[in-house]
Amino acid sequence: MKEEFLKKYHIPNTRQEVSKLVKKVLWFIATATAFSILVIWIAFYLFDSPKEKMLIRENNELREQIEAINSKLEKMEVVLNDIEERDDNIYRSIFEEEPVPKEERFPFANEKYRYSSLSHDEAIALIENTLQKTDDIMVRLSVQEKSLDEVEKMVSDKSAMLSSIPAITPLKKVTEISSGFGARYHPILKTLRRHTGVDIAAPKGTPVYATADGVISRENGGSGYGINVVINHGYSYKTVYAHLSKKTVRTGQKVKRGEVIGYVGNTGLSFGSHLHYEVRKNDIPVNPVHYFFNDITPEEYEQILESSKKINQALS
């Protein structure tokens, strides 16, 4: 009865058969375990989980944001370099001073910042904040650059304008005016007439200098002015140098302040060797003495001013 039961249910009857059965079971378990491990490995290492896909997407977004920040920072660096260079030029060319030292421009050059302890959320917040600040700085830099453009233009125009304003005496060592600006007696007609300039007595052949930068005009200074030179300085200024013995410039020639344009003479309606000098603002004669401020002392200016106030006989 026992043997029939064992055969019916395939139950091994010997120790050897039991051992074989145990081995088969163990082999099956080992195979199943290995297969499970393989499946798990494939699932974890060859296929991304939803969470991993989300992290990959976030990392890609962060990478794009960082690249955008770096691109903006590179543009900002170009603009800053330009601003610093122009700032240095303003210091050197206008104020004749040394520009801001580099160590003051880059106070954090040797400092290192570490953000390795930031969490993922903190890193995202930092990047977003940095992007916003970068955009703000870009706008401010753009405005500052335009402002510097205007400053440079104004400086350039101002420099040109200052060079074009009559600011020196037309003769060297002027200490006295023979006849001043205003009502004076004409030397030939002997009548009181408006004198539109100043007369400076000087020996024939004394060099006459341009009192500002300008261009030699083709126009004649006035009737009875003899050999004369008119300089158009721009910015509404003109100067006239009359009764010359000789002029050394030609029409259309550009001249600089202090350049010789002719020599003192006695040509035209003139009484004695002298220079008749005029300053015209918007084609209206103004007192030239008020423009003798660049190469004389305050004491010399007062002396010239007092001598020009005398209502005497003009030399032309």
Textual characterization of the structure:
The chain has 316 residues and is an alpha+beta fold. The chain folds into 3 domains: 2-45; 50-164, no CATH class; 182-308, Distorted Sandwich (Glucose Permease (Domain IIA)), CATH 2.70.70.10. It has helices at 2-8, 15-45, 50-93, 102-105, 120-164, 298-308, and strands spanning 182-185, 192-195, 198-201, 207-209, 214-216, 227-234, 237-247, 254-255, 260-264, 274-281, 284-286. A hairpin with a 2-residue loop joins strand 10 (274-281) and strand 11 (284-286). Helix 3 runs parallel beside helix 5.
CATH domain topology of the largest domain: Glucose Permease (Domain IIA)
In helices, the fraction of residues equals 40-55%
State the order of secondary-structure elements, H for helix, E for strand: HHHHHEEEEEEEEEEEH
Percent of sequence in beta strands: 15-25%
What's the arrangement of secondary structure elements?
Elements: H1 2-8, H2 15-45, H3 50-93, H4 102-105, H5 120-164, E1 182-185, E2 192-195, E3 198-201, E4 207-209, E5 214-216, E6 227-234, E7 237-247, E8 254-255, E9 260-264, E10 274-281, E11 284-286, H6 298-308
Antiparallel strand pairs: 1-2, 3-10, 4-9, 5-6, 5-8, 6-7, 7-9, 7-10, 10-11
Helix pairs in contact: 3-5
